[in-house]
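Margin note: ligand = adenosine-5'-diphosphate.
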Amino acid sequence: SAAVEWVEAWAPADGARRAHDLFVDRFGTEPDGTWSAPGRVNLIGEHTDYNGGLCLPTALPHRAYVALRRRDDDTVRLVSAQEAGRVREVRLADVAPGTVDGWPAYVAGVAWALREAGHVVGGFDVAVDSCVPYGAGLSSSASLEASVAVALDAVFDLGLAGTAEQPDDAGRTTLAAVCVRAENEIAGAPTGGMDQSASLRASAGHALLLDCLDGSVRHVPFDLSAHGLELLVVDTRAEHALVDGQYAARRAACEAAAVRLGVGTLREVAPEALDAALATLADGSAEGDVQVRRVRHVVREIERVEQFVARLDAGDVEAVGPLMDASHASLRDDYEVSCRELDLVVDAARAAGALGARMTGGGFGGSAIALVRADEVDAVASAVADAFAAGGLRAPAFVLAPPAAPAS
Ligand code: ADP
Ligand code: MG
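Resulting structure:
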């Protein structure tokens, strides 16, 4: 049978030491400190964030680590172990939409957005090292932004993040908005806001119920080990073209449907009112048919988040499995954002005993998740790896995702 490749999370002290040592090696001095922030995985509530809906991410144990030192001028010097370890340099005054190429945009963008929000932030040197898989839909980008945000908060005395023991949720909400602006406007990547909130506002042992209409959160107990369960994440390593265009098209269809329904966001369409809304949208045109399917996904998916949380609140963790399955079917058939690799993970995991499985993240590649009994994790991972090998696909990577701590 095919080999199973696990991507382990680093122990926090190891991650901090790696970033520290890279900093000292490249900049020849000690950093002011080290900070880190997690990637995230969404349990349910997909393509709901930009519709003012609900989503339910958890923080991964996999984190981006930064070592950072404040400078007295306007220069940012940056180096990443994931980007050939070559030092790049940017002047903060030059940062504006479209001016920064490549990964430094995610870092300089955070400083730029803090300034735009009225905070006094100057130059800095920063070294990055990370164990968050890149481009796997697990939000390595938000983990980088959030780690830089809490580092700048500390060295420029912004007083927003609070402490690890007592995080300041209002301040972290501000930092999350700053990170969203950095990613949208400086890195030029569309993002709905779930990733940055998860990285900054999640809490260990909990899922983060995020209401994307007003930005409020609730920490929902999600203790997998107490129930003998694991959350298995499978990075398909699939690369499909047109991802950004498809994302934009989904957003546009939702916005057009909301206009036709006379609502600000699709969140305002209650499940009881769904049939009437779909009847309004179904006007016999091709676009109308597409809108019917997109809206049906969004409204039912938001309802599934509520059901998922109710089952967690009742301590019935295994009962969330069917909701994961229903979410996947809806994303595959109505929202049309799955792909062969994601469907294969879900089908193989379920056949091997997973309690539920679904694609997670935007789709067209990226990762899928499966809720698995702890003593069946190896069997399920093997079954998925074998299915990929039999299908002639590139070997996937596997991650275990107990809900972990936010940026600190
Ligand atoms: P995802 O967030 O799903 O991992 P994205 O395409 O949104 O995928 O973000 C990946 C990009 O974020 C990388 O191409 C790089 O530009 C930047 N990035 C993430 N982590 C790092 C890192 N450790 N060092 C440098 N750049 C990073
Ligand atoms: Mg990203």
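The chain has a mean pLDDT of 96.
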